[in-house]
Amino acid sequence: MPPLDFLLIGGLAALAGAIVQGSVGLGVGLVATPVVTLLYPSLMPGAILVVALVLPLATLAREVGHVDSRGLGWAFGGRLAGTPFGVWLVAAVPARVLGVVIGTVVLAALAMTAGSREVPRNRRTLAAAGVVSGTTGTASGIGGPPLALLYQRESGPRVRATLALYFAGGTLLSLVVLGAAGHLPARQVVAGAALLPFVLAGFLVAGPLRRRLDAGRLRLALLIVVGTSAVVLIVRNLV
């Protein structure tokens, strides 16, 4: 059983992250990952990956009919290629260097896409986003921004459902590969499972926010979450 302080602090972080992701489509990694990494580094990345596996299932239970299944096929192919590279990075690259590089890449992608009228979404861009997402998600627990940028102009239900299915499949892949490589201790899985009540509570609280964002405000919220995730990742590894 994880210590009480982890349940209180990590639970609050997971609750807040679930509220963000339940309304926007991503964000649990943004909020919970820095907290758990700073205070409980031995529980990363497994604890957050467990949370990131379960939360999308709640979204799919509500909005599965809006999934862009064709686009996800190419993104999943990229994720398959990127996940082993993420496992290698966990073992080979210092965590601080890795965090700064990932954050910088996300900010660069945000700058290139935020001002454009429409972000190209085709086989090449979806596969590339999958590769980057598989790498960053496995290595840091934050893998949503690359794919989110490609869907930033879609409707709220389509964004949330598509990202949810991608997160569920991709996170499961990351957990399996990390486990096979010996980088997923049982204590990380137990810690993640202990946070699930907070995650489900956050998803329920997000209901009113979903309705407000779906009324033409989702793209701005999505860009803010993506940009904040990159800045947090850079700052936390520089300080």
TrEMBL record:
Organism, scientific name: Actinomadura geliboluensis
This protein's GO CC annotations: plasma membrane
Domain of life assignment: Bacteria
Pfam families in the cross-refs: TauE
Protein name from the UniProt record: Probable membrane transporter protein
Topology term for the membrane: Multi-pass membrane protein
Subcellular location per the Swiss-Prot or TrEMBL entry: Cell membrane
Homology family: Belongs to the 4-toluene sulfonate uptake permease (TSUP) (TC 2.A.102) family.
Transmembrane residue ranges: 38-60, 72-91, 97-115, 163-182, 188-206, 218-238
InterPro entries linked: TM_pro_TauE-like (IPR002781), TSUP (IPR052017)
Keywords from the named record: Cell membrane, Membrane, Transmembrane, Transmembrane helix, Transport
